[in-house]
């Protein structure tokens, strides 16, 4: 059921390669949902590492500038277009958007909405949308982590990393987590043994904790350090690579570091030593939209259920009003936070 409104909405525009202060607040008429769409009043949207890369034009397949960033959102359906179940209006839902979430309102395909359990705070839920899906699918869909195994999580204080630590602990695994020393107490509090990721003896420190190697490594860092991640694997271990964070500030192509990583993983997989390497891409399989959505709904539903029953602790680093987006980006990039900086409706 469509409802006309003259209300103005606000969105954050990334105009090009800019410092956080270069983000632009744009006001426009409230959009009207087309067939199959819902207009969501956004209550929370996250600042992910992807936006750090996008504002440097370093994200693998970002759209052309200018665009509205925002990889995921949680909000309440304000209006729906033709052919959409009208009872969705008023429901709190989450969506994985890649772009568009940093706004007071966002148009989303209604089929992409995942219900948020009643009583769950929108910012809390937001911390588990892209982070929860990524962590869940890598842990259970690829590495198939089992009770009694030991896993290594890089960036264990980050959005994905802190979620991986919690989900791996819930799966019964022992977790070693790399992080800066300032985050070690927080990593310990999540149930992992912290190791300094800048230590020149990182590999030796991990080996001292896991002399037979680790059953899985989750590596978003890429670059030369990926070699240690591979070498730390136990004989039948799995390396899940899912990013190239170490190349964020390097000049040049946004694609080359990822392509180099693919080549290395392919080479390792050809070696007959029982180890497996995989690159995780949250958008893989998107061409089969029905199957992709079914998997996303199932996996995010599983994560939200753990949040609702208290098994997962949301790591909200800060709640920052949308209008103060530059502060939010600076904070997310400061290296001082545990968990996720969340933009909230003012
Ligand atoms: N492939 C996929 O489908 C997919 C999906 C989602 C996310 N990702 C990737 O997942 C990663 C984490 O995303 P996020 O949103 O969780 O980020 P985040 O919250 O900003 O956390 C980033 C983490 O990485 C650490 N870090 C930053 N630069 C590093 C470096 N050069 N070497 C080692 N560690 C470094 C940070 O440590 P400090 O706090 O000490 O700086 C922090 O622990 C990103 O690389 C992102 O691209 C991939």
Summarize this structure as a short list of keywords or feature phrases.
Quinone Oxidoreductase, Chain A, domain 1, 10 helices, six-stranded parallel beta sheet, 29% helix, 25% strand, alpha/beta, Rossmann fold, seven-stranded mixed beta sheet, 2 domains, binds NADP nicotinamide-adenine-dinucleotide phosphate, 346 residues
Structure description:
There is one protein chain. The chain has helices at residues 49-54, 122-126, 130-143, 159-170, 184-189, 202-209, 226-231, 256-269, 289-308, 325-332, and strands at 8-13, 24-29, 37-47, 72-80, 92-96, 105-109, 114-115, 150-153, 174-179, 193-196, 214-219, 233-241, 276-279, 316-321, 340-344. With 346 residues, it is an alpha/beta fold. The chain has two domains: 8-127 and 314-344, Medium-chain alcohol dehydrogenases, catalytic domain (Quinone Oxidoreductase, Chain A, domain 1, Alpha-Beta Complex); 130-279, NAD(P)-binding Rossmann-like Domain (Rossmann fold, 3-Layer(aba) Sandwich). The strands form three sheets. Strands 3, 4, 5, 6, 7, 14 and 15 form a seven-stranded mixed β-sheet that branches. Strands 10-9-8-11-12-13 form a six-stranded parallel β-sheet, sandwiched between helices. It has a two-stranded antiparallel ribbon with strand order 1-2. Helix 10 links the parallel strand 14 (316-321) and strand 15. Helix 3 packs across helix 4 and helix 3 crosses helix 9. The mean pLDDT is 96. NADP nicotinamide-adenine-dinucleotide phosphate binds at residues 48-50, 130-131, 134, 155, 157-161, 179-180, 197, 220-221, 242-243, 245-246, 280-282, 332, 335, 340. NADP nicotinamide-adenine-dinucleotide phosphate (NAP) binds next to helix 1, helix 3 and helix 4.
């Amino acid at each position: 059921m469509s409802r006309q409104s003259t209300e103005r909405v606000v969105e954050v525009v990334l105009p090009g390669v800019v410092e956080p202060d270069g983000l632009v607040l744009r006001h426009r008429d409230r959009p009207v949902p087309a067939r199959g769409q819902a207009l969501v009043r956004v209550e929370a949207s996250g600042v992910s590492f992807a936006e750090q890369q996008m504002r440097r034009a370093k994200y693998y397949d970002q759209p052309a500038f200018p665009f509205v960033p925002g990889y995921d959102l949680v909000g309440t359906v304000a209006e729906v277009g033709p052919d959409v179940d009208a009872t969705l209006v008023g429901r709190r839902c989450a969506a994985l958007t890649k772009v568009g979430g940093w706004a007071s309102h966002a148009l989303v395909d209604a089929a992409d909405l995942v219900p948020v359990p009643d009583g769950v705070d929108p910012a809390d839920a937001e911390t588990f949308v892209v982070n929860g899906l990524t962590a869940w699918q890598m842990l259970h869909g690829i590495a198939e982590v089992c009770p009694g195994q030991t896993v290594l999580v890089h960036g264990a204080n980050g959005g994905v990393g802190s979620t991986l630590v919690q989900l791996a602990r819930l799966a019964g695994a022992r977790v070693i987590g790399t992080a800066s020393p300032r985050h070690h107490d927080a990593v310990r509090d999540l149930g992992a043994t912290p190791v300094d990721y800048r230590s020149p003896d990182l590999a030796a420190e991990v080996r001292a904790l896991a002399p037979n190697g680790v059953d899985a490594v989750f590596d978003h860092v890429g670059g030369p350090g990926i070699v240690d991640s591979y070498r730390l694997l136990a004989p039948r271990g799995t390396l899940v690579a899912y990013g190239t964070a170490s190349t964020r500030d390097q000049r040049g192509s946004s694609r080359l570091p990822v392509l180099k990583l693919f080549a290395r993983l392919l080479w390792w997989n050809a070696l007959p030593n029982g180890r497996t390497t995989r690159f995780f891409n949250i958008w893989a399989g998107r061409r089969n939209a029905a199957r992709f959505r079914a998997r996303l709904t199932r996996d995010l539903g599983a994560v939200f259920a753990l949040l609702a029953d208290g098994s997962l602790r949301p790591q909200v680093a800060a709640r920052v009003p949308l209008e103060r987006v530059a502060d939010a980006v600076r904070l997310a990039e400061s290296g001082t936070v545990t968990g996720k900086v969340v933009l909230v409706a003012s």
